[in-house]
Automatic annotation (TrEMBL):
The lineage of its organism: Bacteria, Pseudomonadati, Pseudomonadota, Gammaproteobacteria, Chromatiales. This is tRNA N6-adenosine threonylcarbamoyltransferase. InterPro entries: ATPase_NBD, Gcp-like_dom, KAE1/TsaD, Peptidase_M22_CS, TsaD. The keyword Iron applies. Substrate binds at L134, V135, S136, G137, G138, D167, G180, N278. One of its GO terms (cellular component) is cytoplasm. HAMAP family: TsaD. Its cofactor is Fe(2+). PROSITE patterns: GLYCOPROTEASE. Residues 24-312 form the Gcp-like domain. GO terms for molecular function: hydrolase activity; iron ion binding; tRNA N(6)-L-threonylcarbamoyladenine synthase activity. Its main location: cytoplasm.
Amino acid sequence: MNVLGIETSCDETGVAIYAGDGGLLAHQLYSQVALHAEFGGVVPELASRDHLRKLVPLIRATLEQAQMGQEDIQGIAYTAGPGLAGALLAGASVARSLAWTWKLPVVGVHHMEGHLLAPMLEDHPPAFPFVALLVSGGHTMLVRVEGVGSYQLLGESLDDAAGEAFDKTAKLLELGYPGGPAIASLAEKGDPGRFRFPRPMVDRPGLDFSFSGLKTYTLTTMQKESAGLEGEALARLKADIARAFEDAVVDTLAIKCRRAMEQTGSGTLVLAGGVAANQRLRQRMDEEMGRLGARAYYPRLEFCTDNGAMIAHAGWQRLNAGEANRELAFHVNPRWSLMDLEPPAS
């Protein structure tokens, strides 16, 4: 089954074709980062309009890349949530219109399930069951995964997600948008010994996260230490703060992941979501898993951020099992919980 996948949950327009045993046949991605950069974050109305502008050309480009026509597609998957309501509706309306016109089965995919299963796109994918850390701009959660649609929440952020904290910290350091890559780049120049920021909630039992206080600590440190500084001295301060902030987030995530592995007895950890592209985080997780005799799996860097390949793949899993919605009416779910999902009918 060749499945056309469409992703429009936020500010990336992604389209891909996935074919089961044939693997990923083609994928195209358009980023709206330049569009939103001047506003310091995503403007929902602009995102929705840009998705509508780019989707049809991207679908055509993806079919051409795969050397296929519409007659070669047997199913369509699209992101139905969570995400920005208008952006989700843009992708859903195009996907459902194509499915109706081409007389194909269609399924709405959970965005975070797409991320969670993204490492399955690699040549040596992890095997079920495993523990997954989903860490992005909108979510930070630890999940035990028994199979597709069989998820147990182990812990989640009680306030800001890690990626959101990266973006907000980058903004207060005047580094621009998106914040994660900007913080990581600047942190490479920072002195790891100048500041030590708190590791939130690691001294408490459990697997929940909290990054709001760390963001506030970063702000107060910047305000206190930057008085009277300018030029090179101010630039060094920002680099040192970026390094301290990144180290605190990475340590916190690593400690909680180690705790989750020990509690579940799992030997496999999957990292997915935009923050999973952070190289310091990957290095630390590899070290932690090595000490436990476990292994960490990641998507390739281009599939850490939002993309159509993960939606096509997750959609294939469900469409191939016979799950589909052929009704004309449809809806999106901006606040869809991953825990509401069930395994596909077999």
